[in-house]
DNA sequence: AATATCCCCAACCGCGCTGCT
DNA sequence: TAGCAGCGCGGTTGGGGATAT
């Protein structure tokens, strides 16, 4: 049995107060991010470290964009979701000032519905068709080296989409508002190079993560 | 104006990954 | 190599505001 991340009896839960926010901001300004487990005590907060980290990353961090997503941000999220599935942190990494939580919430509350209304299955980015098994071999877990976490979403099968596009009038209608010329993966010209903001000088450079996608360019993610 | 329902989003929870001993 | 601690991620929840009746 895993130990809880903190002694929950002594921690506040729920919405953060302005005083708590200020304590967290002050502490991180003078000591920097990190050591989340010991941070609450050091900062005089009755919160668990996880809660502090989340509050900082999702709300208090400087340079966060608040408010509505621009149209180009929406398009980018849809395209990246088609490629990466529910890898919200990777998707958010391509949207300056946006957090994974924000992107995830926006997807679930707006973009999912938008795709559904357009007749597109938001889980696999297909146009309302069941995907034959042999055409979804290159799923997210195969394409992106990571653990067994991803279970909700099949990435976009570009060859399937192309064949649909040739034969189905519905498709051009449904995808028109997504800018057809860029929505189809083979033409997608996304630079998905990702860099770690702060790498210590003594650290070895990480090996790029290779995303291989049938009929699509190889993508390298430096993480 | 009051009540019900819907929807958004901040926050929580559990689990996997990584690094250290 | 195993065990542990800490961090990060994705899924889920619930409070509260917005909207409908």
TrEMBL record:
Gene this chain is encoded by: MYB4L
GO cellular component, one term: nucleus
Subcellular location: Nucleus
Gene Ontology molecular function, alphabetical: transcription cis-regulatory region binding
GO annotation, biological process: regulation of primary metabolic process; response to other organism
Boundaries of every Myb-like domain copy: 8-60, 61-111
UniProt name for this protein: R2R3-MYB transcription factor
Keyword Cell membrane: no
Keywords: DNA-binding, Nucleus, Repeat, Transcription, Transcription regulation
Main location: nucleus
